[in-house]
Design goal:
mainly alpha
Length: 174
């Protein structure tokens, strides 16, 4: 139940953080008292990050419980989920890196159709940085999936999982 609560809260916060470019913002603007006086709607992104952190911590807790226990079916289910997540990350990440322009054009068409020509030009100048950032994000995510996989297969101890995740966070924040 907690997973659904934080997943829903994270999705709502993300949609609201996209401000004027989603129907949810207009609905909140009209129905929720005080929203019209709030000047920086993007600040709600902290709520999205909080929900992601709570779900990530719950995932690590479940991973450790499944890896430590003798519940083979639970480990098999998590390994299957990790395969799916790894495949989606790999396919989406490679596609995002190779098709940066197409991905951003799709984003503009779906979410930010009222972009000004000046902002569009700035975005186009940022394509190389976006591409390299996507590659770094893909590498970090795949490293996390690989660590979880290795722990579930009992190839690494729990301490190595924590050191590895800590190293990923350290490198990512550098």
């Amino acid at each position: 139940r907690r997973v659904w609560f934080f997943l829903g809260g994270g999705i709502l916060a993300l949609l609201y953080a996209l401000t004027y470019h989603t129907p949810l913002f207009r609905l909140c603007y009209e129905l929720v008292p005080g929203v019209q006086h709030f000047r920086s709607q993007g600040m709600i992104a902290f709520l999205y990050a909080f929900c992601a952190c709570v779900m990530g911590a719950g995932g690590v807790d479940h991973l450790l419980d499944s890896a430590a226990g003798a519940q083979q079916e639970s480990r098999d289910r998590i390994l299957k989920i990790l395969k799916i997540i790894g495949g989606i990350l790999l396919a989406g990440g490679v596609a995002g890196i190779l098709l940066t322009r197409f991905s951003l054009d799709a984003w503009i068409g779906l979410i930010y159709s009222d972009i000004t020509p000046q902002k569009r030009q700035v975005l186009e100048a940022a394509y190389p940085g976006i591409r390299s950032g996507a590659a770094i994000c893909l590498a970090m995510a795949l490293a996390g999936v690989a660590l979880a996989w290795a722990r579930l297969q009992r190839k690494i101890p729990t301490a190595s999982l924590f050191w590895g995740l800590g190293l990923i966070v350290l490198v990512d924040t550098w």
